[in-house]
Amino acid sequence: MAERSKTSSRGLIVGLSVAVVLAVLLFVVRSVFREKVEVRTASVAYAPLISVVSTNGKVEPLKDFQAHAAAAGVVQKVYVAVNDHVQRGQLLLKMDESDARSKLASAQAALNAAVRDLGNMQGGGTQDELLSQGNELTTARAQQQMATADLTKIEALQAKGSASANEVASAKQRLADAQSRISQLQTRRQGRYSSGDIAAQRSAVAQARAAVLAAQSAFGSVEVRAPFAGKVYSVRAANYDFEQFGDGLINIADLDNIQVRAFFDEPEIGKLSVGQPVTIMWDAKPYSTWHGHIKQVPTTVVPYGTTRNVGECLIAVDDANEELLPNTNVTVKVTVSQLANVLSLPREALRTEGLNDFVYRIVDGRLHKTAVQVGASNLTRFQILSGLSDGDIVALGSPINTELKDGLEVKALP
């Protein structure tokens, strides 16, 4: 029985020894034949670093004229077409003037009548009314003179006893009536119209004058002329069309002098400054590019659509060449910084731990965690201020998303 126990113990020891040997052999084999982690790499190098901010914008002419119908009427003749160049004062369009002329004549007649009525009121009435009042006053004065003479005679007769007191009283009453009639006529002539009546008529004259000015303006707008030299970019009217008041007729602009109103998202506003160079692109001409510079940075933030808060930036276009049309939507790219020759790497290489930046530098086939100080950056690269040297090889990442860590043995992909 003791012999069987001793044999069993030896077998257990031998088994454990074999397991340890196999484990060591497995570790050695895995260490010798294990595959290295493949990584994409980049080399630290000197290169230009340009930072660009891109957004949308709208083209605006600095000198833009939009002709509208000053009154409803018929277009007599259109003298220009789209893309025509016009000079200052050149006739663009003429409306039929018969209606405007008739309205001007009516307005002038109304003004003349209002002015005449005001003069009559200030003078006490019309010429006929004044003549009639004068005749009435002359008659009343003649009656007064007769009543005065009659009273004198009757009073003399009364003194001789030939006239009664009643006759004298009747004569006095006739004289008083004549004097009262004269007083009434004089009062009516001098105060027929109150100050309120005259003020109301003055207001009517002012309104009539305003109507004449409006009619004169409408008559003057029968001929539409170019206020400056430019290019016709829109003609909405045609010969014999009937246009309503305010309808658009013709648009011209100086297309050599334009600007772009660009809309930058709020986080990008701080990067902008006056004079920064700008590249402008228009989808309608995908192979053309225009250039300009910022002439006014945003001064406030306003809602744009339903999802954006933007600052409006004004961009001068330096080479418009009459190619960009008003109100077109364009893409603008502003160069906010430009460094000529700096050490840089792709942004994919940069990693952050707390407030510290680092990269994985490859030395002798292994990753070495290396702290770096970064400077300017754009969408694809960042500037290295310290921590790396020209020619250093840095890991970007693993094609199979293997986690990179300090000391990991790697194989750089070609």
Give a structural overview.
It is a single chain. This protein is an alpha+beta fold. It has five helices and 23 strands. Helix 2 packs antiparallel against helix 5 and helix 3 packs antiparallel against helix 4. It is elongated. The two termini are 69 Å apart.
Please report the distance between the alpha carbons of the first and last residues: 69 Å
State the order of secondary-structure elements, H for helix, E for strand. Answer: HEEEEEEHHHHEEEEEEEEEEEEEEEEE
Rg, please?
Answer: 51 Å
Number of alpha- plus pi-helical segments: 5
Could you tell me the number of beta strands?
23
* Approximate helicity band: 25-40%
Overall pLDDT metric: 85
Summary keywords:
4-stranded antiparallel β-sheet, about 425 residues, 5 helices, elongated, alpha+beta, 6-stranded antiparallel β-barrel
Would you summarize the structure shown here?
By secondary structure, this protein is an alpha+beta fold.
Describe the SSE topology.
Blueprint: H1 2-33, E1 37-43, E2 45-61, E3 64-68, E4 73-78, E5 85-86, E6 91-95, H2 98-123, H3 127-160, H4 165-190, H5 195-220, E7 223-225, E8 230-235, E9 242-243, E10 248-253, E11 258-265, E12 277-282, E13 285-296, E14 301-304, E15 308-317, E16 329-346, E17 351-353, E18 356-363, E19 366-371, E20 373-377, E21 381-386, E22 393-397, E23 410-412
Helix pairs in contact: 2-5, 3-4
